[in-house]
Amino acid sequence: MTTVSEKIGAGLVKELREKSGAPMGDCLKALQESKGDIEAAFVVLRKRGMASAAKKSSRSTNEGAVGNYIHAGGKIGVMVELNCESDFVARTDDFQDLLKDIAMHIAASDPRYVRPEDVTPEDLEREKEIYKAQAMASGKPENIAEKMVVGKMAKFYEEVCLLEQPFIKDQSVSIKELIAQKVGKLGENITVRRFARFKVGDPNWTVATTKLVEGSAE
Questions:
Q1: 78-134, pLDDT tens digit by residue?
Q2: Environment class of residue 172 by beta-carbon count within 10 Å: exposed (0-12), middle (13-18) or buried (19+)?
Q3: What is the CATH number of the domain that holds 2?
Q4: Sheet of 191-199, strand order
Q5: By the 8 A CB rule, do 178 and 169 touch?
Q6: 63 bridge partner residues
Q7: 95, part of any domain
Q8: Which of 33, 53, 66, 93 is the most exposed place for a label (fewest CB within 10 A)?
């Protein structure tokens, strides 16, 4: 039996991306929830604030603040830089609460990257090859295997990218959606610039910086 994920092609995801301005991964999830109905998927994105946040995503975020979170009796420490458009918004309780929530989430969930666009080409190609090989080994034809890889990659991004992860305090909302809600409330673009996570005794610490995009801070 063909699954919903297998029916949703890259063309449909691209069409919703162009219509909403939302990231590809969010468009795919919305289409999966709406069973391939692009208008219903657009409504899903609007309800989550993704469409309105996308309209502000090109605005420069040259202000902001650095926050930290210490967990487990001082065994895990996180520092994160969250950017916005004005110092006024950076000093609001809403922005500061968001900064604290993101730092706490990083401590608990240990992401490796900020966004899917930041995943290294090596990691990306490795995962795609693994997922395609698994699909082909299960007997799926190549065109179906390619569509299955798209769904698998969305799950991979959710595991390793901060913005794609379900928020630790509310699993029904991703970090990106949490930020989008604040963008809608505060009326300014908000971006995660970088973060660092350290754990006592663990030699593999994480330092992640998002790639510069148009409108981001230098």
A1: 999 999 999 999 999 999 999 999 999 999 999 999 999 999 989 888 988 888 788
A2: exposed
A3: 1.10.8.10
A4: 63-71, 76-84, 191-199, 206-209
A5: no
A6: 84
A7: no
A8: 93
Task: Tell me the three state secondary structure of residue 1.
Answer: coil
Q: Round to whole Å and give the CA distance between 150 and 148.
A: 5
State the total domains in the chain. Answer: 1
Say what the pTM is.
0.71
Report residue 77: phi and psi, to 5°. Answer: -130, 140
**Looking at the domain assignment, is residue 34 inside a domain?**
yes
AA identity, residue 136 = M
Contact, 154 vs 25, CB < 8 A?
yes
What is the model's pLDDT at position 113?
Answer: 96
Q: How far apart are CA 108 and CA 147, in angstroms?
A: 32
Instruction: Give the residue ranges of the chain where pLDDT is below 50.
Output: 1-2, 213-218
Six-digit token string for 92:
């609001």
Residue 205 located in a structural domain: no
What distance in Å separates the CA atoms of residue 152 and residue 53, rounded to the nearest whole number?
25
